[in-house]
Design goal:
This protein is an all-alpha fold. About 80% of the residues lie in helices and about 0% in strands. The longest helix has about 60 residues. Homodimer; represents the active form and is present at a pH value below 6.5. Homotetramer; represents the inactive form and is present at a pH value above 7.0.
């Protein structure tokens, strides 16, 4: 995701991610440092907590991939739209040039 952003925004996002990940503690090892418990299973820790943490990470990673794919598709559609607009405008330019040629020819 960060490679799509401008460098200044990219550094801000990565620093925010690092800061928020520091508050989590070790995933699946009970309550994090951020004050939230994360649910009774994660609070208890152990293998169930680690499994739930891993499933949550997979879920969010999948969601992020879906969002990036949707964003990429949106940009592709925008590109196609703008290409069609360029072609339409070029036809308009050619039409106007033809009118100018006709006016010069009539003089």
């Amino acid at each position: 995701m960060a490679r799509f952003l401008r460098p200044s925004i990219r550094t801000f996002v990565t620093s925010q991610l690092r800061m928020s990940s520091d508050q989590l503690g070790e995933l699946g090892k009970g309550a994090g440092k951020g004050g939230g418990a994360g649910g009774s299973i994660r609070e208890a820790g152990g293998s169930m907590g680690r499994k739930q943490a891993a499933e949550e990470e997979m879920y969010f990673k999948r969601k992020e991939q879906e969002q990036l794919a949707a964003l990429k598709q949106h940009h592709q559609e925008e590109i196609e739209h703008h290409k069609k607009e360029i072609e339409r405008m070029q036809r308009e330019i050619d039409r106007h040039k033809g009118k100018i040629r006709k006016l010069k020819h009539d003089d």
